[in-house]
Design a protein that fits this description.
3 helices, single chain, mainly alpha
């Protein structure tokens, strides 16, 4: 789970740098298509990206825990 949180933080920082420094028209185009009435649109987008990453980390962690969980069910005799 720590790996997912670190990856989310790295991606969110990269996304923030990309959207504000490398492709400055990206957030403008996104706000025209989505919501131009918010005063702090950049913060909303970065917060949404971070929340999506954290939730994905949580869901994948819980899914893999179930996948790799050892079974407590007794084995039936005669079956391998």
């Amino acid at each position: 789970m720590v790996t997912g949180v670190v990856a989310t933080l790295i991606f969110t920082i990269f996304f923030a740098l990309y959207a504000t420094e490398l492709n400055t028209a990206f957030l403008g185009e996104l706000s025209e298509a989505w919501a131009s009435e918010y005063n702090n649109f950049e913060a909303i987008v970065f917060f949404t990206v971070a929340i999506m990453g954290f939730v994905t980390t949580l869901v994948l962690t819980l899914s893999f825990m179930q996948l790799f969980k050892l079974s407590n069910n007794p084995k039936k005799p005669g079956l391998n």
